[in-house]
Amino acid sequence: MDADVLVIGGGLAGLVACAELTAAGRRVLLVEQESAANLGGQAFWSFGGLFLVDTPEQRRWGIRDSAELAWQDWRGSAQWDRLDDEDRWGAAWGEAYVAFAAGEERAWLQQQGVRFTPLVGWAERGDGRAGGHGNSVPRFHLPWGTGTGVSGPFAAKARAAAEEGLLGFRFRHRVDGLILEQGAVTGVRGAVLAPDEAARGVATNRREVGEFVLTARAVVLATGGIGADHDVVRAMWPERLGTPPARMLTGVPAHVDGRMLPIAEASGARVVNKDRMWHYTEGVANHDPIWAGHGIRILPGPSSMWFDALGRRLPAPGIPGHDTLGTLRLLRTDPAIAGFDHSWFVASQRIVEKEFALSGSEQNPDLTGHDWPLLLRTRLGSGPTPPVAAFERRGEDFVVADDLPALVAGMNRLTPDAPLELAVIEWQIRERDAELANPFTKDAQVQSIHNGRRARSDRFTRVASPHRILDPAAGPLVAVRLRVLTRKTLGGIETDLASRVLRADGTPMPGLYAAGEAAGFGGGGAHGYNALEGTFLGGCLFTGRAAGRALVAAL
């Protein structure tokens, strides 16, 4: 026997499981198909936001939150409708996670070395229904270091455990199958891949130079989702979201290929809710890409106008920052625009400066680098943040112009197959601008802007003062071509609350556990149909911890 536990996958969920196991003196082998440069996985590249409830940071901003309100929001967003089957364990995990987020999560993370900025964002503001999708209050907490600030402490714990002899690394080891003996999982087999010195995130070779077999008392699958494989994304694309785009941007490195899901399923594990996924509609091509098709998500405030490929303003819930999958549904289920892969933001420079943020650790050097002076200078000073300014100058999807005719002409140069009519765009912008003459409005988006300004955290950091987009003093004008950005798998391997993998008959597979995105962030679907943001890293933390603690108790 090579170890007490084999942890497959060196992302956040796997690292947390390793930390729990080695802290209790268990011997662990971490098996990862990529090189040591990629320790921390997809979490390293993330913005790092965490869904937390009733925190000191919220209270400082005057935000009143509670576990009851958070669970109402989670349940309304998840919209579980398979509770007698595929949603049974996902719903249990969702309820358990909300209790964790409202309870010990923040203190536990601080004990692990995670530190929080005072910023609390309002992500997924909702579909307009009290019991529907969305966060009723801001609860998106930003850690210092962004994604690196969450994954980094656990990567450091893994290296320290390796120095103590409790943890062994098996990098460039790709698992191709599970070993079963009398119905129990006792190890893994696979191929040793040739060394590759590529930088973190860059695709590596798949040349096989050997084979391996590893055995242990238990195996934890923490191998992520399908986001980098567009063919698989399209194959699983649900009818309720219309037709998948012919062309998409990729929001995750190439190694996020989901290949362990069918391998686990072939060995007897149940994989559920395959039709549930999470992709962003505000993707732009990275002007300095790290992986093929590398896209970056714009994290918008509520003020930009959103138009489809034909130049029609999106109705609610197609308001920036409100309802990710609701907007995706608007864009992909309308036959008139099904042949196009893009939509548009139109904003003033004032909106861009106040409201545009970019997802990703590398796009936020102030937060990632723990740089208070840079944060104060770039977030609260004049002008956009340097990364946003770079996209305005160099991004292929950005158009900047001094007047609307020039802006629309620039947009049409980017998408000549879907020409926009200046008069139609101008009429819709002037309609919206007319709603700003007084504090009362029937326009749902303008209502959201006023509502956001009532939240001190938003007023201070994320929502521009209401103004006419065509006001020359707020210019120049900015248009951004947006495309679908692949990201998360919401379904996955079904697990009970101890992270034990379940068979089709509902019984646990002895020796097999799953955590993180591979497990649908718990139970094969803790989010149901929608997510509230800040819950993906949180789900990896929670399920990785649960798997580790369950194994400590069991072994």
TrEMBL record:
InterPro entries: FAD-dep_OxRdtase_2_FAD-bd, FAD/NAD-bd_sf, KsdD_DH, Succ_DH/fumarate_Rdtase_cat_sf. Keywords: Flavoprotein, Oxidoreductase. PANTHER family: 3-KETOSTEROID-DELTA-1-DEHYDROGENASE, KSDD-LIKE STEROID DEHYDROGENASE RV0785. It comes from the Bacteria. The keyword Flavoprotein applies. Pfam families: FAD_binding_2. The keyword Lyase does not apply. This is FAD-binding dehydrogenase. Residues 4-537 form the FAD-dependent oxidoreductase 2 FAD-binding domain.
